[in-house]
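Supplementary Text 2. Reproducibility record for the structural model of the 191-residue chain.

All settings were left at their defaults, and a single model was retained for analysis rather than an ensemble. We include the record here because the model underlies the residue-level annotations in Supplementary Table 4.
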Amino acid sequence: MSAKVLARSARAASGLTQSELAIRSGIAGSSLSLIEHGKREPTVATLDTLLRATGQTAVTIPTVRSDAARIASEIGDALTRSDDASAFRRFLQLADNLAAEYGATKVGLVLTVPAPTGSEHWDTAIAALCEFRLDASALPIPTWVAKRVGHPDSPWAPRTSDYDIPADATLVPDAFLRRGILIEAATLESI
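Retained model, structure tokens:
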């Protein structure tokens, strides 16, 4: 995970503004902004200071796969470009990444709270996917995942192609359905 994603995710999870984090950490607000926008790479000590000021710490995970926080950031970047197809591909990559790992490594891929993507629907879909994959392996569900409950009364489905084919609700996993996210289980499986 990049310093940009880690810093933004840690700050978002803590509920601090950039100004509040700058005061709490003693790191200039302008430097924090540059780090969060990927225009400056902080030293390990600076990143550690920022994380500690948010009440978090960095943990290494033995995998080459991208975690939920990084992919959420990439989905957000795609949405900024109005590139729904790329957002959906990144979401499917997270589905594959979580399916490919086991035990503590799988849990590790969802430990960092993702910063908002800019779309509550996508944020909820990411949480549903994390719950779906962890629950299938009888692994613990992080609090951030459980807190993203979505809007079951107004269902949403991501745009996956030029053709709008509605999802069959009977084929949508419970973790998605109860959040109002209509993605069939088969869509989450690699071919």
